[in-house]
Amino acid sequence: MKALPSSLTVILLSLTPAMMSAATMPLAQDNTGYYWYTRDNWSGGSDTQTGFSFGDPGTGLLHARRNYQYYGGASRHWDSCDAYLQCSLEDLEASQIESAFLWLHVETNSSSAATTLRHLATQSTAATGNASQKLDGTVDVLSSSALVVGWNKIDVTAFILSDLGKSYTFSAFSIPQFGQNQDEDRILSFHGADAAAEWRPYLEVTAIPEATAASLCALGLCALIFRRRIFI
Questions:
Q1: DSSP for the chain, written as a single string
Q2: Residues 100-144: pLDDT tens digits?
Q3: Which of 108, 153, 176, 185 gives 20 to 30 Å between its CA and that of 39?
Q4: What's the pTM?
Q5: Could you tell me the residue ranges of all domains in the chain?
Q6: Using CA atoms in the order 33, 108, 68, 63, what is the torsion angle rounded to 10 degrees?
């Protein structure tokens, strides 16, 4: 019996890395933001303000935050914030995806406790790409304690594939404010889509292009036929 020619083996192996392609998909301007609460409480009354921001002016920073302090019967809460992100799934097909990573650039991560990056598993309200929808995640992706200052590469492959399987247009994620703790400012700040281009979050998807996948199948078939003829 004749062995398969080494030259053909080399050709097949050299095509394996080439059939994969990585694409970076920066989040659009309205895909990120945070909902903020400014609340001062005291005996006999309260004053509350709320609002939504697509990023701090000048920096584009987003925040998940809880600042709580207690003074002799007077409780005060400042800058309580929940952060939101939505990633476009346009032009993605589940059958072609090898991996998907969400890249976040963290500016500040200061807390003795942790909050959690969460994914919205079932969208009773369809995500439209606008973070001001304030769609809260329901499934834990990553603890904030695992995030470092600088770039963070977060594996969201399973969540992206799940959303594509449900024909969702966007994947929705959120980071809620930290749990309450007396006399402590708990804050996670990271750059959103309003930040300078080099700090904006993005989705990195590695996929098998459809044309390449078809070519690979054809090549594999030819290899089998060629191998069969050699062994006969």
A1: -PPPPHHHHHHHHHHHHHT-EEEEEEPPGGGEEEEEEEEEEETTEEEEEEEEESS-TTT-EEEEEEEEEEETTEEEEEEEEEEEEEEE-TT--GGGEEEEEEEEEEEEEE-SS--EEEE-SS-SS---S-GGG-----EEEEEGGG--SEEEEEE-HHHHHHHHHTT-SEEEEEEPPPPP-TTEEEEEEEE-TTS-GGG--EEEEEE--HHHHHHHHHHHHHHHHHHHHHH-
A2: 999 999 999 998 899 999 999 999 999 999 999 999 999 999 999
A3: 108
A4: 0.80
A5: 1-20+209-232, 21-207
A6: 0
Q: Per the structure block, which two tokens stand in for 145?
A: 């304690």
Give me the chain's average pLDDT, please.
83
Q: Which two tokens stand for residue 184?
A: 């402590």
